[in-house]
Specification:
This protein is an all-alpha fold and 475 residues long. The chain has 22 helices and two strands. β1 and β2 form a beta hairpin.
């Protein structure tokens, strides 16, 4: 099949999927496309020039010449435009954003410390710009909260990302190999990247997409309404098949293993209603602390504590070169252990060339490099506060709260051998940020005229209480 024809057929298929999604997403405004596009940009991890310019064009040359520190000019303008559009929507809706943030004290402390760390950075101006980019996720979350049904808007966002990015990944891999494939620097084997910039990025895109769509199927099964959303059901199943195919083809062992663990965690949360007890809250917080300690220890132990798991997945003792990277980077961390090198300031162009790698392949080590031990402690406190709120959310929204808990624990597992936790502009962290915040949102924000923006769902009264209320009204 000619590549152009394949691209046209894929475009038609995606438009049909989006049409079905729009028809089933009642009450979701067009403004949700603002955070959706932002998440898609984060998921691809590529400069926008890559998609606009073809081979040998001026735009492609400009993209290749841009360094990590200077960044992509088109990405910068696009992200700025999305942030401004989001702020305008929030302002026009007169959303009580301060009320929505009042339970996020540890997040505010963490962001303040990130800003403070910029001033001992070697690249202060660039680090300050990177810190400002972190704030965009707050705009996107607040915009989602201002929707009439935030959880429905969240489902639309995740579904649209999967509907668009996964089918086009197939086309790029099969018909546009210069964009959809790369060669491994360690083995020289050709690997799939799809719309993303690296095979592990494709793996985590598939991991989150498949996990969400499986959750959507679970919700559909719980409702037991076969006539409701039948076309969307088949759309979800088709994308799940594509996602699993891409996940296997990308050979991203970390993403595949994390997906299986995430499914097990979600089923455990759904089957064990006792998780809402105090014991469940302590257990969830203990899991966060354990995974943080475990993941932080991985590079310092040379990966020996994960070697047994990786051998089952067919990985060598060096974890595909990760142990060598950790051995090189840890001495740099030891020179500034307490405060780190400053937010977004360790992986400069010089150090990327020196270590011949863009990240430490361990999210906890990257936090230590940038923010030091103080930053790592603040991260733990922030995620513990989220887990405490998610535990409470199980009492009124068990499905979405369980989904958010599973995603959060999946992220902590994933960051043991990959790096994504140290920035909210990273796809997996951005998605978890949005999902967790909306899952714990109690819908108690008030509009300027005092009316509730979203009314909380009231628990059903027992028959005896309803009968008593009716009798009292009659008398």
């Amino acid at each position: 099949m000619p590549p152009t024809l394949a691209l046209l057929l894929c475009t038609a298929f995606v438009l049909c999927l989006l049409f079905v999604e729009k028809r089933e997403s009642k009450g979701v405004s067009a403004a949700v496309w603002i955070p959706t596009v932002w998440v898609m940009i984060a998921a691809t991890g590529r400069p926008i020039e890559t998609w606009i310019g073809g081979s040998g064009t001026v735009l492609q040359g400009f993209s290749a010449a841009a360094s990590n520190e200077s960044g992509s000019a088109m990405n910068r303008w696009m992200l700025t435009a999305l942030a401004v559009a989001g702020i305008l929507v929030i302002a026009l809706r007169r959303f009580n954003w301060s009320g929505a943030m009042r339970r996020q004290g540890w997040l505010i402390v963490l962001l303040a410390y990130m800003l403070l760390s910029v001033f001992w950075s070697e690249i202060t101006v660039i680090a300050l710009k990177r810190w400002a980019r972190e704030l965009i996720v707050l705009v996107m979350v607040l915009l989602m909260m201002s929707e009439a049904n935030p959880l429905q808007a969240l489902a639309s966002l995740l579904r649209r990302c999967a509907y668009v990015l996964l089918p086009f990944s197939i086309v790029l891999i099969k018909y546009y190999p210069l964009l959809g494939r790369q060669y491994s620097r360690w083995s020289g084997v050709q690997m799939w990247t799809g719309v993303t910039g690296q095979k592990n990025e494709l793996g985590r895109l598939c991991m989150i997409s498949v996990f969400f769509l499986l959750f959507a199927l679970y919700q559909h099964w719980r409702e037991r309404s076969p006539e409701n959303g039948r076309y969307q059901l088949w759309s979800d199943i088709s994308i799940i098949v594509i996602g699993i195919y891409l996940l296997i083809g990308s050979s991203s062992a970390t993403s595949f293993a994390t997906l299986l663990v995430g499914i097990a965690i979600f089923l455990g949360v759904q089957w064990s209603k006792k998780i809402t007890s105090n014991v469940g809250r302590i257990g969830l917080q203990a899991a966060v602390i354990f995974l943080f300690v475990y993941g932080t220890a991985v590079p310092f132990l040379g990966g020996s504590n994960v070697a047994a798991f990786t051998s089952v997945l067919g990985r060598d003792e060096t974890l595909t070169g990760r142990t060598e990277v950790w051995a090189l980077v840890i001495p740099a961390r030891d020179r500034q252990p307490m405060l780190g090198y400053g937010f977004g300031s360790f992986w400069t162009d010089y150090r990327r060339q020196l270590y011949d790698i863009p990240t430490a392949h361990n999210g906890y080590l990257d936090i230590l490099l940038e923010l030091g031990e103080v930053g790592l402690i603040l991260y733990v406190c922030w995620l513990l506060s989220w887990m405490r709120q998610l535990h409470r959310a199980l009492t009124w929204e068990h499905g979405w709260a369980g989904f958010a808990i599973s995603l959060l624990l999946m992220s902590l597992i994933y960051n043991s051998t990959e790096s994504a936790l140290n920035s909210t502009t990273d796809y997996i962290t951005a998605v978890i940020f949005i999902v967790c915040w909306l899952a714990v949102y109690k819908f108690d924000s008030r509009s300027a005229d005092g009316a509730s923006v979203i009314q909380p769902e009231r628990p059903m009264l027992s028959n005896k209480r309803r009968l008593g209320s009716t009798t009292a009204m009659a008398s």
